[in-house]
Design goal:
heterodimer; A: alpha/beta; Arc Repressor Mutant, subunit A; 3 domains; 8 helices; 9 strands; B: about 170 residues; mainly alpha; Rna Polymerase Sigma Factor, Chain: A; 9 helices; about 75% helix; about 0% strand
Chain lengths: ~230, ~170
């Protein structure tokens, strides 16, 4: 054993567990996440994709066969998302918004699952660093919340800010995202998928390995799934 | 595994799992939260447990999955704490710990996770391979690479000449 081994053994010296740890761990966690009943969401779809998502009173609207297909797919993905079985939406959206709002929503859609950013940072990313209030307004008028994840934008001081479906829903969504892994590999195939991919859903529990990034997965011989990471 | 067994598992493995989570996440509250989430996941997925696996290996797999996903959400320390990093570390044991902590930041995340599992609980290469779903040879090469990076960092120091020779 060389000196580096000694240094590492000393550095990784096991931490002393806090008193009564086992009692606290065994206590049923009151934090099981129940976000919302998927049936309480209502969708409007066109031939090109999802146009609107509302919560509470309302009804689904889809005039054509293509619109009904988009609507059914969106409903399925939404139910999986709310159950913590999906981390991204692949259903197309059909947004009729202005140029500024379009840019804000496009940037918001790029924020990775489980991460948050501030209104000011989003304003900076679209090239209008002083327009954080306008960014907030554009997000407030997001016609498809959750699908375009405007809940991942919070105030610079860490408080939630306004959310179309209410602060409790925003808390529940962010908590759900915090406890759901985004990249799951299969120990049998050495392929890594995004959570929600059809191939990911077939990985058995005992073969699941979570990665923090695709680079991490590649570094130990995994490759990205060709279906969900094209 | 019934609920009584769950409590027994928490009593038997809680401290060991906590030790790994604490060394990976660096915060007591986060570590405790991660262990609790891992135990709940293990309980929920108890039907998938195969007796071919040691219970500890199964639990370490689930715990490591939770911790790795938690690490994904964290910004690299270098972005947060660049100014602090350039300050010289104090001499003695605390200085050595700070040096190792800084050097570990430059080790790729997967290798860092393997180092923590290996040194905190003395897990074998075979167990590490099972836990991370990789081959034993990949475990060996990752550990060797991680240690090589540490050696170079500790010899040169992040911003200047060596303060100690690890060999």
């Amino acid at each position: 054993m060389d000196q580096l081994d000694d240094l590492l053994a000393e550095y990784f010296n096991p931490a002393v567990a806090p008193k009564r740890l086992a009692t606290r761990l065994a206590r049923p966690a009151a934090r099981a996440t129940v976000v919302a009943d998927p049936a309480r969401f209502h969708l409007e779809a066109s031939d090109r994709g999802i146009r609107r998502l509302v919560y509470g009173r309302g009804h689904d609207t889809a005039a054509t066969a293509a619109a009904r297909r988009h609507l059914a797919r969106a409903r399925e993905e939404l139910a999986e998302y709310l159950a913590g079985a999906r981390t991204y939406f692949s259903v197309p959206v059909d947004l009729e918004v202005g140029d500024f709002q379009g840019r804000v929503l496009t940037q918001a859609a790029l924020i990775p699952y489980g991460e948050t950013t501030s209104y000011a940072e989003l304003a900076r990313r679209i090239g209008h660093p002083r327009a954080s209030r306008a960014v907030g307004n554009a997000l407030g008028a997001n016609p498809v919340p959750i699908v375009v994840p405007c809940h991942r934008i919070i105030r610079g001081d860490g408080s939630w800010g306004h959310y179309a479906f209410g602060g409790d829903m925003k808390t529940a969504l962010l908590r759900l995202e915090r406890t759901t892994p985004a990249l799951v590999g299969s120990a049998t195939t050495s392929i890594v998928c995004r959570k929600g991919c059809a191939h990911e859903q077939r990985i058995s529990e005992r073969h699941r390995v979570v990665f923090a990034s695709l680079d991490d997965a590649r570094s130990v011989g995994y490759r990205p799934c060709k279906v969900c990471q094209r | 595994m019934d609920e009584g067994a769950f409590t027994k598992v928490a009593e038997e493995y809680g401290a060991r799992l906590y030790a790994v989570a604490f060394r990976l996440l660096g915060h007591r509250a986060d570590a405790e939260d991660a262990v609790q989430r891992a135990l709940m996941k293990a309980f929920a997925a108890r039907a998938a447990y195969s007796p071919q696996w040691a219970v500890s290996t199964w639990l370490y797999r689930i715990l490591t999955n939770v911790c790795v996903d938690e690490l994904r959400r964290r910004r690299p320390t270098s972005e947060i704490d660049d100014a602090h990093r350039s300050t010289p570390s104090p001499a003695g044991a605390i200085g050595a710990r700070i040096d190792v902590a800084r050097a570990l930041e430059s080790v790729p995340r997967e290798a860092r996770v393997l180092l923590a599992l290996h040194y905190v609980n003395g897990l074998s290469h075979r167990e590490l391979a099972q836990i991370r779903g990789i081959s034993v040879n990949t475990v060996k090469s990752q550990l060797a690479r991680g240690k090589q990076i540490l050696r170079v960092r500790l010899e040169r120091g992040p911003h200047g000449p060596a303060r100690r020779s690890p060999r």
